[in-house]
Amino acid sequence: MQPDAVLDASAQHSGLERFPKAWHKPLAHLALVWGALALLTLRDWFAMFDQWWNTSTYNHILIIPAIIAALVWIRREELAKLEPQAWWPGLLGFAAALLLWFLGRIGEVNTFSQLGAVAALQFSVLTILGPRVTAGLLFPLGYMLFLVPFGDELVPTLQMITAEITIALTEWSGVPAHIEGVFIDTPAGLFEVAEACSGVQFLVAMMALGALVAQTCFQSWRRRLAFLAACAIVPIIANGIRAWGTIYIAQSQGIEFAAGFDHIFYGWIFFGIVVALVLGGAWRFFDRSPEDPGIDGAALARAPLFAATDRFAATPARTLATSGAMILFVAVWALLASRLQATVPESVSLPEIQGWKLVDYDPELHWEPRATGADHRLLGRYRNAAGQEVDVFIAIYASQGDGREPSAPSEGALPPDTMWRWKNGANLADGARRDELFALGRIRRTADTYYRRGAFLGGSAGRLKLATIRDRILLDPKPVSLLILSSVERSDQTPDAALAAFRQSTGPLGPWIDRIVESR
């Protein structure tokens, strides 16, 4: 039996006979490629599903696969008027998607690897089924991007925006208040615009809903863009109003009552009210039925633009083989790169520093940065003759991976599930990341974070990722160090002065860290 006959026979037994015959072999090829991609990116899909299921910010994504399937189903009759045709330029996009996945995988940048996993599925459709079919599926394919959990990167920015809106409304309503970072002090008490209050959950869900409504309910691009802008702006403003409402209620009813009311109202009612207001305001401008497929299969089949692309048509078997070879290549390279492990000493210790001596670490409120999976951790306190004190934390990693990422959001200067709260942050001239921490309403701690890998020294998580990616591409293992210098504000000490004096005594930090890592 010939290979084509085998494919046709398997298509008949899989239910593909309900599609036009011209679709049988291309769909079988697409299924093979998607199966291989699923094996390659299985870890990313498990990680995404874990976030969809267990993180409230992304619970809405659980219904997106069903939405995508419905969007394709609505288009089925128009798609049947098209004939799939393998198209070799699609391999360029497919290769770019695999490269993005590879870079994210070896650099432990989940957003990149997950985005690459989704993009590879999208470009495989272009490669296997061709431009005409891809044009007919353009929105469902594009909507697949909402499968990638994103938004956590926006939390600090949204916290600050919410805080600014809240303090403006609080002062406007006649309540005396003082803002410091994300903390707002009022007569009823001190309020924090915490990560959970940033509104990111509301925003990402509204953008997913907005994209769907904009496509299915509007024909005018001007109306679509206006609606999407409303879906981005209204949740941010509404979240600031909600936070202000909590503070305003607390002035007369107390913090506990306001917090309980906010939890119930925001969790069960507020989101629905805002969605209803946005949809209600746009309802009169809807100019398209949601069940309208929005594509004309016959028009796509004879469109001059797609006729010009026919000269780039490819042999289905060749595109299938090339796609498989690409997948195998990046799989082997990623496996080799992810297994790299540098050599680190069996033991390390904090060094002596001229003008400073190690003293007992006995802070008023315990503070210990988080460094999950590090091979070594050191935490100590130095004091100089002037009485200035600096806490030093260093963690050393022989390799990076799941549960071993010094630059992960939950790692570093702000220990989770403690009394410490993040107040604000900034980037210093020497590249460090400075975080201001706050606890018990009165303890202020400044923490400067540095990463060291090879010649790189700085507080940028992004630059650390780039250094990691470069070394892993070259299969060059290097250890990674996390250094945090911290000082607590006292009546006789400012953190800035103490940290500056300590830095002057250590000399260049890069070689100073290397001496610790290379100690025996």
UniProtKB/TrEMBL annotation:
One of its GO terms (biological process) is proteolysis. One of its GO terms (molecular function) is peptidase activity. The chain crosses the membrane at residues 27-46, 58-74, 86-103, 115-139, 200-218, 225-245, 265-286, 319-336. Signal peptide: none annotated. Keywords: Cell membrane, Hydrolase, Membrane, Protease, Transmembrane, Transmembrane helix. Residues 326-509 form the Methanolan biosynthesis EpsI domain. It is found in: Cell membrane. GO terms for cellular component: plasma membrane. The keyword Transmembrane applies. The keyword Transcription does not apply. InterPro entries: EpsH-like, Exo/Archaeosortase_dom, Exosortase, Exosortase-1, Methanolan_biosynth_EpsI. Coiled coil: none annotated. Pfam families: DUF3485, Exosortase_EpsH. It is a multi-pass membrane protein. This is Methanolan biosynthesis EpsI domain-containing protein. It comes from Erythrobacter litoralis (strain HTCC2594).
